[in-house]
Amino acid sequence: MPGGQDNIGIIVKPRSSVAEEAALKAIRALTRNNVEPLIEEDTWKNYESLRRFPKFSIERNPPRKIIVVGGDGTLLWATQRVSSPEVIFMTVRAGKRGFLLDVEPYEIEERVLDFIMGKYKVFEYPRLQAYIDERKLPCSLNDVVILTKKGRLVRLTLYANGFKVYGIDGDGVVISTTLGSTGYSLSAGGPIIDPSLDVIVISPLNPVQLHLRPVILPPNYRVDIEMRPDSGNAYIICDGQYLEEIGPGTKVSVGRCEYPTKIARFKWWENYYEKLYTRLLTYW
Prior knowledge:
- The chain is of the alpha+beta class and 284 residues long.
- The chain folds into two domains: 7-125 and 260-281, 3-Layer(aba) Sandwich (Rossmann fold), CATH 3.40.50; 128-256, Probable inorganic polyphosphate/atp-NAD kinase, domain 2 (Tumour Suppressor Smad4, Sandwich), CATH 2.60.200.30.
- The protein has helices at 17-32, 41-46, 72-81, 108-117, 184-187, 272-281; strands spanning 7-12, 36-40, 55-56, 65-70, 88-93, 121-125, 128-132, 135-136, 143-148, 154-160, 163-170, 172-176, 200-205, 215-217, 223-227, 234-238, 242-246, 251-256, 261-265.
- Strands 3-2-1-4-5-19-6 form a seven-stranded mixed sheet, with helices on both faces. It has a six-stranded antiparallel sheet with strand order 8-7-18-15-10-11, with no helix packed on it. Strands 14-13-12-9-16-17 form a six-stranded antiparallel sheet.
- Helix 1 (17-32) crosses helix 4.
- The termini are far apart.
């Protein structure tokens, strides 16, 4: 039955023949080892080849172990919607970048067996919890972004644990986790943070004040952001998955999410900088 110890869930990036092929390879490895694959509802709808297997809802009855096949966006989609803090994700890269995913297609069979047998290390990645005027938004594994709407100037005042950091007049701001430091924050001029560290990174987006620079905060800090009365409208975006329009006078707070995301890693620590170079720094 869904959620049982003898089931492992499968989530696949939509409209990708590469991801579909990798998912089928993972499923064959599961069935050879007498583990029944469960297909996530949206994946089940997207791929006819997977409809012969039972399905599950990631928001209602996820199995304890889930294999994510695709890119970074696929993983972020899954981690934002999963209803149980006990779920452990195995990540299979099926795309050009997929920096957050560490299993390559050629090693799927070996890693699936390791996943079944528990031969992996679980890393718990802190997430960010954003609030709009005290209303809770979905947790973010990578980042919380305030981004201009239609290119209008966004005017913000930022505070860290109640102390003013600076004012930003520009396109907005990125608040990121350590894991998210290689995402939008990096494009905004933020630093690459070693994954052994646990911090919060503030990266202004195209500020008019050219002297503004990213700020790194301790992980337990609360970041408060006030949209000034003369600010243009903006969007708040959580992990590129959740989007909501906000306007002048809105108060946004960002702190630590109650539950981290759990990801099974197999060789992650021994080759992090190799992955950083091959997948990110030589991306083009």
